[in-house]
Amino acid sequence: MVQATPLLLVLFLALGAHGLQATQQCELTGHWQNDLGSNMTIYEVKENGDFDGKYLTAVSASPSEIVDSPLLGSQHLPYLSQPTFGFTVHWNFTDTITVFTGQCFVDEYGKEVLKTMWLLRSHSEDLGNDWKAT
């Protein structure tokens, strides 16, 4: 996997995704792509703020074939125009889990942008090696 240090990712709304509302509201639902080529799809943000989707990373140190992995998350309520959110990705091809937290923004050009930080946790065989697993 990617080096396990926090990395600021800028996820850009991919072509073909939904347009902005007149109030410049940032919506998480849709397809997103980051600057490294990873793809994320958020299917729907429910009334309680919960959402699910899939993540296909473009970066991995695993020898296994990279496949779509499920994500589960929550957006802060009430629905703000530029909401905070968090989600977890359970990687289907390796023994790691990643948590992301961030905020959705609308930039000066009307483009939706996700700013996130992430933390990746690898499996550790014993407590003595716990220090290098996150």
Automatic annotation (TrEMBL):
Disulfide bonds: C26-C104
Pfam families: Avidin
Signal peptide annotation: 1-22
Main location: secreted
Cellular compartment(s): Secreted
SUPFAM superfamilies per the UniProt record, alphabetical: Avidin/streptavidin
Subunit structure: Homotetramer.
Task performed by this protein: Forms a strong non-covalent specific complex with biotin.
Family statement drawn from the similarity comment of this UniProt entry: Belongs to the avidin/streptavidin family.
Record protein name field: Avidin
Phylogenetic classification of the source organism: Eukaryota, Metazoa, Chordata, Craniata, Vertebrata
